[in-house]
Write a structure and sequence with these properties.
The protein is α+β, with helices and mostly antiparallel strands. The protein contains 2 helices and 3 strands; from the N terminus they run βαββα.
Amino acid sequence: IRLDLPIRASLDSDVKLVMKLLLQASQGVPRVLSSPVPGTRLLRFGENAIEFELRIWIGDPQNGISQVKSDVYVRIWELFKEHNIKI
């Protein structure tokens, strides 16, 4: 199944860098499939943030989805901090 993970970044963020980091965050996370390939979307420019979506796929939803989402969000947090991207 596909999981859609919403992410917000500050308005002064480098959009291309954010999208690159989101894809990078999904790599190496157990249970995230490499095919179909994860994808990112810029959804909108909000008043206080740029809104993105990371789309990932897993093959075993019967094992739950919360931990997979948590693992990806933790990796996003780490990468954003490394690259000074503010949420």
